[in-house]
Design goal:
The protein is 43% helix and 14% strand.
């Protein structure tokens, strides 16, 4: 048994290493903890007792106890409490971890202790954390797949969300964005009667104008409602100056952007003083955006696509979220996942040929810049390594604004139709990575070029040989609904390699009604017939729908994503219910559900439950007059018929 437990110890060590945790095995280098463990015998003898690992992260004391078999994970009392009898403490992981946690709470100065019971191996395991406070009270926490939440970067967030049950700063920020978008949407409607597609353009333009404050070319105080030089004209002039300062070129590109922003100066209503506001709506919008979003973008250069969030909220309130054009904006957690799945490097060149508001490019920029401290490399990433195409003029304007606000990248954005571009010409840009969320549900038998799989092939042909490509598309794209789509799948495999497909949460695009998946390819390398692909079921991704808010992150999301990445990069061996590895054919349905079969032998309990369900169903059918389904002459039917014959009426 000890030999098997040693294997578990090694696996746990690898998990700790992956999470960046340095814990001490069988004791502690911290004198106070080691002294307490000298009287921590599980048998209660007062002799030494040592858990597998102990250590301190910030002000949290972490203790880990593990067992080789999941059957020795936890022993409970009849009241469903963690049993604290000696036999349970000695033989069960969670029970032992809790014992050590309570002992250390009593005998050290640490007030926040996380005791973790681990059992099994990398393929089949359970990880159960328990929080113990200084009074030796304990709270069981949701099971995990990794230790990622307990490193220095994540442990405070975990504590706030999972133990204190409060919102983190990011969640508060997200809720504030939603609230701000709602307020601004109503103001744009009430004070300007602005069309849906123009709302985000006003937001984008004002944010560019605000950048001129630090150069002395614009001030909010200058928006006085003058009818000779209107507030809109002043904002427009500042936009024009900022586009020149950002070196947007060629000139025709700058003219396209200015043409979109002209709505700010040409809409009369928002340039006249509104009595209820005591100022022009343009000044009101500018003040609001300065306080609610400009500061966030300026001082918090993270991967958040703020303008995309505002666009999405505006469109959802107005009922015109771009679905008629197949436009479905990609959530931040997906754009960040793309960057991690494709293992971006600082030297990569990234192409998004359907870039929308720029979410993928922002996430890629943020990820790549996090991996270098070299100022010149960071400048190169901004200016030379991000490429985007967008067909819709207003979306292109938002994306360009987004990239300018992030420091650069705008010089490689173009307003154009991706499918009309020669992929061999695009390939000359030298892009090593492709990311794409193409328009959905636009293809048909009469217009097959607009199928999502057509966009996929076009992108793969546009990336250099050996480049990495990820797309997010409806699951139906991977099944191949039509013969045309099947033929494209076959053609893709002749030129490119499918690495795998990840089935996503059906609510990823909440409110849209699309069941999405992520497909990952290697471009320019023909798919070998013996190539083993990964098909992962990631429907349980730790995100849930919250009423009046939409899709929100739960405390388990980071852990589940880490487990996904571990499986994807072969760091762990996963159960086939999560990940199936297999060779493929072009006419297969490239989804986990197609390749998965349950190879676990049902237990006696499973058998009894199934029989009980069947008997319940049979009795229910018979009592409702459907005994004929089971070849039974239903007595209730006979009674009813007899009653009806006698009275001419039913006695039900």
């Amino acid at each position: 048994m000890r030999a098997k437990e040693k294997n578990t110890d090694i696996w746990v060590y690898e998990l700790l290493k992956e999470a960046g945790l340095k814990l001490d095995p069988q004791g502690s280098t911290i004198k106070e903890i080691n002294r307490a463990l000298k009287s921590a015998s599980k048998h209660g003898t007062g002799k030494p007792g040592f858990p597998e690992y102990t250590g301190v992260v910030k002000d949290f004391l972490i203790v880990i106890e593990n067992k080789a078999s999941v059957s020795n994970h936890v022993k409970r009392t009849s009241d469903d409490l963690i049993c604290q009898e000696t036999d349970s403490i000695v033989n069960y992981a969670v029970n032992g971890a809790l014992f050590y946690g309570k002992h250390l709470a009593k005998n050290t100065s640490y007030k926040k202790i996380i005791a973790i019971g681990v059992s099994g191996n990398e393929k089949k395991h359970r990880i159960s954390p328990v929080f113990v406070n200084e009074r030796e009270d304990y709270y069981e926490l949701p099971k995990l797949e990794t230790f990622i939440y307990f490193n220095e970067q994540n442990i405070d967030e975990y504590y706030v969300k999972e133990i204190l049950k409060e919102n983190t700063d990011f969640e508060k920020e997200t809720q504030e964005i939603l609230a701000d978008a709602k307020v601004l949407h109503e103001d744009l409607r009430n004070y300007g009667a602005i069309q849906d597609k123009d709302k985000p353009l006003i937001v984008s333009g004002i944010l560019l104008a605000l950048r001129e404050i630090e150069h002395g070319n614009f001030s909010i105080e200058s928006l006085t409602g003058d009818t000779r030089v209107t507030d809109g004209q002043k904002i427009y002039n500042a936009i024009q100056a900022n586009l020149s300062r950002a070196n947007v070129s060629p000139e025709v590109k700058k003219d396209k952007l200015l043409n979109q922003f002209s709505v700010i100066k040409d809409t009369t209503k928002i340039n006249l003083i509104e009595p209820n506001l005591g100022k022009t709506p343009n000044r009101h919008f500018t003040e609001f955006l300065y306080n609610s979003i400009y500061k966030s973008i300026r001082f918090h250069q993270n991967g958040e696509d703020y303008l995309g969030r505002f666009y999405g909220e505006f469109m959802s309130y107005s009922g015109g979220d771009g679905q008629t054009l197949g436009i479905i904006l990609t959530p931040r957690h997906i754009t960040e996942l793309f960057a991690e799945l494709l293992d971006l490097k600082p030297e990569d060149k990234v192409l998004d040929p359907c870039c929308g508001t720029g979410g993928f490019l922002i996430a890629a920029m943020h990820n790549m810049m996090q991996k270098t401290n070299d100022h010149f490399i960071k400048e190169s990433i901004r200016k030379d390594q991000l490429f985007g195409l967008e067909l819709q003029p207003y979306m292109f304007t938002i994306a360009t604004t987004n990239m300018i606000l992030r420091g650069d990248g705008k010089s490689n954005l173009e307003q154009d139709d991706f499918l009309k571009q020669n992929p061999k010409k695009i390939q000359l840009k030298g892009c090593t990575v492709g990311m794409m969320n193409p328009p959905y549900s636009q293809g048909s038998k009469t217009n097959p070029d607009l199928y999502e799989i057509s966009f996929t092939e076009h992108l793969l042909d546009s990336i250099v040989e050996g480049g990495r490509v990820a797309i997010i598309v409806p699951q139906s794209t991977m099944t191949g609904k039509t013969k045309y789509e099947q033929s494209i799948k076959a053609n893709i495999l002749k030129k490119h390699t499918l690495e795998g497909v990840i089935t996503l949460n059906k609510n990823t695009f909440y409110g849209v009604g699309v069941n999405p998946c992520i497909a990952v390819f290697t471009a320019g390398v023909p798919h070998h017939e013996k190539k083993v692909c990964k098909f992962i079921n990631f429907e349980d991704d730790g995100y849930v729908v919250q009423k009046h808010v939409g899709l929100v992150e739960t405390p388990s999301a980071k852990d589940k994503k880490q487990h996904l990445l571990n499986a994807w990069f072969n760091r762990v061996e996963s159960d086939i219910s999560f990940c199936v590895e297999t060779t493929i054919e072009y006419d297969d349905e490239w989804l986990h559900s197609f390749y998965y079969f349950n190879d676990e032998i049902p237990s006696n309990e499973d058998f009894q439950n199934t029989i009980a369900d069947y008997i319940t169903f049979e009795v229910n059918m018979i009592t409702h007059g459907r005994g004929y389904l089971f070849g039974i002459d239903n007595e209730l039917d006979q009674i009813k018929n007899t009653s009806t014959d006698a009275t001419g009426d039913s006695n039900e």
